Write a sequence for this structure.
């Protein structure tokens, strides 16, 4: 089996590739085994590879990484009820499974959904993690039609989907940040205003407060400052609350870890209190149900995946260098098996 993996905690220089790893096996009765066509990488892969999430999850090496997958179901566990062999699927796998940058991945059926039929897997494999994150954040903030929404880092993987969902699904007025040459794309995706973050600080430009601020750029105080009293700030960095950690981790945090997480959240809780806003650290919860909802939007053309570039799996190290440059517009895709998903290839 082909796979990209890390040999130790560290940067992209610790990434290696092999085409002769043992094939992954079905991981349980509630799992499906997927033959991977395409995968995608996210900043969390870089953080996890560098050992920065070790306090929450420890990895043995070699470690096959990657969360996002598009592929075909090859085997189903005896307790699976929704998916069948041959289904064309996409998903964001859980934390405890071996990663998606491999010829095969086993994942719980509950996090894998039928992929949109109108788009190649080489595009939709980039949707699950960022699409679920953006959708779950907007839903947590209960965004209503006509409300003012601010989304920082509009040109990134999360931002490009969040802008489209906020505008075309939740019906909001959308303000975002992006450099000059990306403004046209961001407006095309649905942004009503684009603030050039290289020239101005958004907290100085936004005079009328927003109902919902999506902190994708890790600036909690600036986001709280531009949000109405009792408005909602959804943040993507920082420690999860103990309740969120329980939802996303394979092993629920114990007494000590709960207190560490509470302490880590103290500064942001105080900022939120100071500005009178509600504040929640959002962590993507893998969910086939939410992916089904996103499939509907993708098939209707309400939202579309934005792909920056595609690398062959053997170049995973280069792909990670590109991701960590922080300059990608939308998603970085890894082509794992280009003999699959033929109807979308000439
Ligand atoms: N909690 C969760 O579950 C979760 C899920 C997904 C992502 N995240 C986090 O969310 C963050 C964003 O992820 P991503 O995948 O969207 O990142 P990304 O794709 O790597 O973002 C890159 C883009 O951001 C733009 N950018 C960089 N700095 C900016 C700034 N200060 N203001 C505005 N735009 C800026 C860059 O545009 P230019 O080239 O023009 O600079 C580039 O287009 C990461 O910190 C990630 O760890 C968390």
């Amino acid at each position: 089996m082909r796979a990209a993996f890390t040999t130790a905690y560290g940067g992209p220089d610790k990434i290696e590739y092999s085409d002769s790893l043992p094939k992954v096996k079905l991981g349980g009765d509630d799992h499906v085994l997927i033959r991977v066509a395409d995968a995608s990488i996210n900043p969390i892969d870089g953080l996890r590879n560098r050992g920065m999430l070790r306090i929450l999850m420890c990895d043995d090496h070699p470690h096959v990484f990657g969360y996002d997958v598009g592929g075909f179901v090859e085997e189903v566990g005896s307790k699976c009820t929704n998916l069948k062999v041959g289904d064309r699927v996409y998903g964001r796998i859980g934390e405890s499974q071996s990663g998606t940058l491999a010829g095969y991945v086993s994942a719980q059926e509950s996090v894998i959904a039928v992929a949109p039929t109108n788009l190649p897997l080489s595009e939709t494999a980039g949707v699950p993690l960022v699409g679920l994150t953006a959708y779950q954040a907007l839903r947590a903030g209960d965004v209503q039609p006509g409300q003012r929404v601010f989304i920082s880092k509009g040109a990134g993987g999360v931002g490009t989907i969040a802008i489209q969902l906020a505008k075309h699904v939740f019906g909001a007025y959308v303000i975002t940040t992006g450099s000059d040459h990306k403004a046209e794309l961001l407006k095309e995706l649905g942004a009503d205003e684009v603030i050039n973050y290289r020239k101005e600080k958004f907290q100085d430009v936004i005079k009328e407060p927003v109902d919902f601020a999506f902190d994708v750029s890790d600036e909690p105080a600036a986001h709280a400052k531009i949000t109405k009293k009792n408005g909602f700030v959804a943040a993507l960095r920082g420690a999860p609350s103990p309740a969120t950690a329980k939802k996303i981790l394979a092993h629920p945090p114990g007494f000590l870890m709960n207190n560490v997480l509470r302490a880590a959240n103290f500064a942001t809780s105080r900022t939120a209190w100071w500005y009178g806003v509600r504040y929640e650290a959002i962590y993507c919860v893998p969910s086939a149900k939410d992916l089904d909802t996103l499939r509907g939007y993708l098939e209707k053309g309400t939202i579309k995946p934005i792909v920056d570039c595609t690398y062959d799996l053997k170049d995973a190290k280069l792909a990670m260098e590109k991701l960590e440059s922080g300059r990608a517009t939308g998603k970085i895709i890894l082509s794992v098996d280009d003999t699959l998903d033929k109807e979308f290839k000439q």
